[in-house]
Design a protein that fits this description.
288 residues; 2 domains; elongated
């Protein structure tokens, strides 16, 4: 009987303490060192720009106003506000916030009129307020999430934008005097070759010993986009599709997605699939 009780006591101790021994012996993953842990996203209360301290939220509103999207749907505006915040976060780190395009309230009143300013400016403020402190990050750090007005059917990264074709400003033409074109392509009447990139953008235009990228020609001749065809006669006619360089998010496509029910987070994941949506621990007011 004594042997049985001894065995029972041993078995009981083994039953209760063996799991603890196993847990103590298990190798736990090391904690992430504090030096490499992603820091919460935080903005200063104001942005210094040309000697003026502008409340950060108001600065973001002014950025959205400069993008000419004031009539867009709420979720498109929110997606754009996060992209603007991401651009601002990088610009603040690099000390170049004053280089970011923006429009002041007075400038918006002049451009839109007093009535439409009273309608649209609060919408931009609401988009910033609802997403304030949210940015797009890669590897824990904000990156300059680029935007552009209108794609030529897809973005440079290959995101399809089928509804951009429906925009009334999808196709535009630019006519250039032949005399302005010949210094760059002296043999263009006899020998002109256009190579397109997979996205549909013109990769290069070559004639004889001259070669320029579509982006270079966009800058040289004030074209709305680097996606174009051209014809050479007495004058050179560029037929362009879309507006902007095609990098990042098509703002028009974002609005079309919002019309069809996509919320701002889905829109951002569509155009920046490798990015994460990161938020600071506490949102702040617009500060205005």
């Amino acid at each position: 009987m004594r042997n049985f009780l001894t065995f029972l006591s041993f078995f009981t101790l083994l039953f209760f303490f063996a799991p603890l021994l196993c847990l103590n012996g298990r190798e736990n993953p090391p904690d992430l060192p504090a030096a490499t842990a992603p820091k919460p996203i935080s903005f200063p209360e104001t942005v210094s720009c040309n000697g003026e301290a502008i409340p950060t939220g108001e600065f973001l509103v002014q950025m959205l106003g400069a993008w000419k999207i004031q009539a867009y749907r709420a979720d498109a505006l929110k997606a754009a506000a996060v992209a603007a915040a991401s651009q601002l976060a990088v610009a603040l780190k690099e000390g170049r916030a004053e280089d970011l395009p923006r429009i002041t309230p007075d400038g918006a009143k002049r451009a839109w009129g007093d009535y439409w300013f009273s309608v649209y400016w609060p919408k931009l403020q609401a988009a910033v307020r609802d997403t304030y402190g949210t940015v797009l990050t890669r590897d824990g750090a904000p990156f300059p999430a680029e935007v552009f007005p209108l794609s030529w059917g897809k973005t440079e990264e290959g995101v399809d934008c089928p509804y951009d074709f429906t925009c009334g400003e999808f196709v535009t033409t630019v006519t250039v005097d032949l005399e302005k074109f010949l210094p760059y392509f002296p043999d263009c009447k006899d020998n002109l070759s256009v190579k397109n990139a997979p996205s549909g953008r013109v990769e290069t235009v070559t004639s004889g010993g001259s070669s320029f990228t579509g982006t270079q020609l966009m800058s040289m001749f004030s074209l709305p986009s680097p996606a174009f065809t051209l014809s050479v006669g007495e004058r050179v006619v560029f037929t362009c599709r879309g507006q902007g360089d095609g990098q990042g998010m098509s703002l028009y496509a974002a609005n079309e997605a919002a019309k069809r029910g996509d919320d701002w987070e889905i829109i951002l994941h569509t155009f920046y699939p490798q990015a994460e949506i990161s938020r600071q621990e506490e949102n702040r007011s617009l500060g205005s």
